Amino acid sequence: MYYWDKLLISHFCIDTDKPKEMHCNKTKTLKVFHAPNHPYIKGTNFLQSAVERFKSEGYSIDLIILQKVPNHVIMEAISESDIVADQFVIGWYAMFAIEGMAMGKPVLCYLREDLLELYRNVGLLDKDEPPIINCRINQIYDKLKWIMENREILDEIGEKGRKYVLKHHSIESMSKIFRDCIRSVLSA
């Protein structure tokens, strides 16, 4: 299929039985995990600057950055974090954010408004989806401050993320989409 057979919010799917639901840690220090495969297009330096500003102001926050490590190391780091910081430049989420949501972790990521509008207008997303904390590069400090001041709702955001992944990115949900594509090709 060399052309789009169906508009998708993302073609990624995940085994939702593997990453079990995890809740946010309740430690004093906010643990932010970031795993950039491309730091410049993920906005890593902006995230680092925001975290350094918090530290200079006396906040208890840790930024964990991992690159070029096996996936099981990434999954372990997600399970030990309070929040997953995906990307702040591209304007949509991908596998790293899905892995975080599948484990019940809130995700901080920039989502382009035009894509949100498109996917909502064609019925692929409900108005409150995806349950990602939308954040541009110039909002990282403010969004992290909001997270620190509202830590009691991180589990709720994480639970909504897990439900979202089950609905849109589970093997079961994606197999239905691909099954329909294959059926349309076979019936043509």
The helix-and-strand class reads: alpha/beta
Q: Strand content of the residues, in percent?
A: 5-15%
Shape: globular
User: Strand count, sense and closure of the main sheet?
Assistant: 5 strands, parallel
Low-confidence stretches: none
Please explain how this structure is put together.
The chain has 188 residues and is α/β, with parallel strands linked by helices. It has eight helices and five strands; from the N terminus they run βααβαβαβαβααα. It has a five-stranded parallel beta sheet, sandwiched between helices. α4 packs across α7. The longest helix is centred in the C-terminal third of the chain and has 17 residues. The radius of gyration is 17 Å and the shape is globular. The mean pLDDT is 89.
Q: How would you summarize the topology of this molecule?
A:
Elements: E1 30-34, H1 39-42, H2 44-56, E2 61-65, H3 71-79, E3 83-85, H4 95-102, E4 107-109, H5 113-121, E5 133-134, H6 140-149, H7 154-168, H8 171-187
Parallel strand pairs: 1-2, 1-3, 3-4, 4-5
Helix pairs in contact: 4-7
How would you briefly describe this protein structure?
Helices cover 45% and strands 10% of the residues. It is α/β, with parallel strands linked by helices. A five-stranded parallel sheet has the order 2-1-3-4-5, with helices on both faces.
Task: Fill in the keyword field for this structure.
alpha/beta, 188 residues, 8 helices
